Amino acid sequence: MEGVDFYIHGYQPISIGGVTVYITTSHVCLAIVLVVLIAFAIVANRVIKKADPTKAPSGFLNVLELLVETLDNLVHDNMGRILGPKFRNYIGVLFMLIITCNLSGLFGLRPPTADYGVTLPLALITFIMIQYQGFKWQKMGKIKGLFEPIFLFLPVNIISEFATPVSLSLRLFANILSGTMMMALIYGLLPSVVLLVWPAALHAYLDVFAGALQAYVFAMLTMVFIANAADIDD
């Protein structure tokens, strides 16, 4: 449609083995998000190192402690005291990456999570962790579980296993992409006068609320799936 920009552009072509691929908007936006997260981590590290343990935290340090405490409680409640400490770093990084990608639309970027090439690798990493933890803690019980409750359920159980990364990646991708497309249509088709006020409410819902919700859902499902695969009584 004329006047509508879905923010999908190819920039620098790169030839790999005779195949030409492009540096796209998603690559550029993802690089910006990573730079922001790395800068945040560096600043947070310096603030923590300079903190006086004899004094009550304040300012940015207070925010950091709140984030860490909330994350620890969330991971502990969903994964237990054995798995929780092992996965709090991964869950924290995963959540921060996804929510930053989702919120990047507020600053004129195309959310990287609106690209399936971003959400699928994240889901595949989670899938590998699910399988690894299943075999680590259940041993051959993981294979035995594929035949339960009866042998005939083997195909269904196998499909269920491989459906996990597909559902995780598609849920995040589809929700963020739909919001991105809606905003592109609004900015491309509505008069400039209307755009002065109305899109703010949509950004609040599509970028902030939906973006934060999808990041939380992805992180929560990751914790639940890994904990269920390990099946540890703690």
Describe this structure in words.
The structure is a single chain. The chain is mainly alpha-helical. Helices cover 73% and strands 6% of the residues. The chain contains seven helices and two strands; from the N terminus they run ββααααααα. A two-stranded antiparallel sheet has the order 1-2. Strand 1 (10-16) and strand 2 (19-24) form a beta hairpin. The longest helix is centred in the middle third of the chain and has 44 residues, at 60-103. The N and C termini lie far apart (56 Å). The mean pLDDT is 84.
What keywords describe this structure?
mainly alpha, 234 residues, single chain, globular
What's a concise summary of this model?
The protein is mainly alpha-helical and 234 residues long. 73% of the residues lie in helices and 6% in strands.
Order of helices and strands: EEHHHHHHH
Overall mean pLDDT: 84
Terminal CA distance reads 56 Å
- How much of the polypeptide forms β-strand, as a percent range? 5-15%
Largest sheet: 2 strands, antiparallel
Rounded to an integer, what's the Rg over CA atoms? Answer: 21 Å
